[in-house]
Design goal:
The structure holds two protein chains of two kinds. By secondary structure, chain A is mainly alpha-helical. Chain A has helices at about 1-15, 20-30, 35-50, 55-85, 110-125, 125-145, 150-175, 180-190. The chains are: A mainly alpha, B mainly alpha. The interface between A and B is large, with 32 and 41 residues.
Amino acid sequence: MVGVDERVFLWLNGLAGRWPWLDRVMAFLVNDYFVLLCLSLLLVVLWFIGGTAEGRAHLQTTVLTTAAGIGFAVLAVMILNELFYRPRPFTYLPAKLLFYRPHDSSLPSNSAAAAFAAAAGIWLGNRKVGLFALILASLYAFSRVYAGVHFPLDVIAGAAIGFACGYLAFWLFRTLRWVPQAAIWLMRKLRLA
Amino acid sequence: MGWLKLQYLILVFLTSCGLLQGVFSCRKVSGLQFFPRRYQGCIFSIVTTVGAFVWFYATGDRNTLPVIEGSQQFGLFIAGAAAAAAFTVVFSSMVNHWRSFSRAAPEASAPEAGLDDLKRMTYLRAIPMIASELWSTLVDGLRRWRGIGRG
C-alpha cells in the first residue's frame, strides 16, 4: 500500500513544473492561510446570513458544530502525531517542492483534517454551501500532494479524520442540543445572533 | 508580536469587516451598516475583502518560513474577527447616530428578535434594552433558584 501511495505521489507531484500557471495556482492554494481563512470566514458569514430567526438559529448551530468539529480534528491529529511518525515525501523521494520543509509527521495531514472537518460541518448543516466548502477542502488537499508536502494517503487519512470529527460534533450537538441553544440564546440577547 | 502575525491579524480584521458589511447590506440590518445604500455596502465588501487578500499575498511569499502555527492562527482569527465585530458595532453606531431610526424611541422588541432589532436602531441605542433584558433574566433566574432552594 505504501508503494502504491509513493507511486501516486510521484505521479501527482510530477505534474509540478510542467505548467507554470498551474504551479502558481497550487502555490496560492497550498499555503497555511488562504483555504483555512476562507473556510473560517464562511463561518462568520453563515452566523449572520440567515433571513429569519429560525433560519439563523439553524445556521448558527451549524457554525458552532463546525467549530467543535475542527477542534476535535486538530486534537485527534495531535494525538496521532504523538503515536507514530511518517517522514515527509521530500525527505527520501525526488519531490518537486513548492513549499517550505515542515518537520512534523506527514501522516495524517493536519491541514486536510482541519479543512475537511470544517467542510463536513458546513455540509451537514447546509448542502449548497457545504458543497462549495468540500470543493475548497479537496483542492487544498490536492495542492498539498502537488506541492510535495504530503503523500496522497496522508491527505485521505486527514480527510477521513476531518469527516469523522465533523460528524461526531454534529451527533454530539444533536444529543446535547442545549449547548448550542444556550450559546445562541445568549448571543441573541446581546443582539449578535 | 511578529510582523507576519500582525499582517495576518490585519488580513482577518479587514476581510471580516468587509464580509460583515456585505452580509448586513444584503440582510438590510441598517443599524450595523456603514453606508445607507445596499450597493455601497456590497462594493465596500468586495473591495475590502479582495484588497486585503491582494495586499497580504503581495507583501510576501507565504510558502516560506516563518509561518504561523495552527493554534496561533486560531487565536489570531478569533482576535481579528472579534475586533472587526467590535469596530462594526462602534463605527456603525457613530455613522448612523443621526439617522431617523436612531432618534425614534425604540419599539417593543419581540422576545427572540436578536439581530433583527438592529434593523431599526443602532447597537448603541440597543445597549440599554440589552442591559435591562439581561438584568431581568438574571433576577428571574435568581428568584427561581431561591424558590427551588426553599421548596
